[in-house]
Amino acid sequence: MDSFHIFGLQFLLSLVAYGLLAKWYVAPRLARLPLHDALIPLLVPHAFRHLGLVFLVPAVVAPTLPAAFALPAAYGDLLAGVLALLAMVALRARWPLALPLTWLFNIVGTLDLLHAFYRG
Hints:
By secondary structure, the chain is mostly helical. The chain has helices at residues 3-31, 35-43, 67-93, 98-119.
């Protein structure tokens, strides 16, 4: 099996495992919460997307990592992470723009992920 197939299989199996965990444990508990409270735990993992800035640290990534991938991936992750943090604060404080901010995070985060897959 070559690296591409190994990566694809790992990704697929992880997606299945996390999907089952979400269906069996996370969704039932979040379904009982008000919308604003249920969205916060879903944003928590994304609040750490600032770690994507590691793509810009030469000692961490290979020198052959193309800047055309590293720069948009790093700054896209940073933007998504900051938006996730802002959305969490807005949801917790029940700000009127909390749900639009959460949607904005989702759109930006999804576009960042799609762009990184396309460039990667």
